[in-house]
Amino acid sequence: MEAALSLEGQFQALTDSESEVLWAYYMSTQKFIYIAPKTDVFKVHFQEEFFQAPFWVSASPGKNPERKQVITDLYDDLAGKGLLISVSQPVYFRDRFVGVAAIDIGLNAMRRILETGDCLGESMLI
């Protein structure tokens, strides 16, 4: 838990008001989640169902034995912020899977990113 708390500064910077990142968080196999921006604990707190969420499943050893960073398909945010994707990084300590660090980017942010610039033709997010 101490390691997760040490990420507070980076997580807060990732989710500042100008950021495209909706959430930055670490979830542990020890059944806790640390999330930014800070939110009412009654709105976002650890729930067993998080172990079935795309950000977790896609990064877990069963689906990701290579231990690579992964990007989920579009899914509905468990905390109610709409459709988003997660960029998830599995976390290992002494060769043991201990959790997932992730950021969530909302559908509206992805649309804004794709609509910026003055390129001729079409933009695609791959």
UniProtKB/TrEMBL annotation:
Question: What domain of life does the native source organism fall in?
Answer: Bacteria
Would you tell me the protein name for this molecule? Sensor domain-containing diguanylate cyclase
Q: State the organism named in the record.
A: Leptospira ellisii
> What does the record give as the organism's lineage?
Bacteria, Pseudomonadati, Spirochaetota, Spirochaetia, Leptospirales
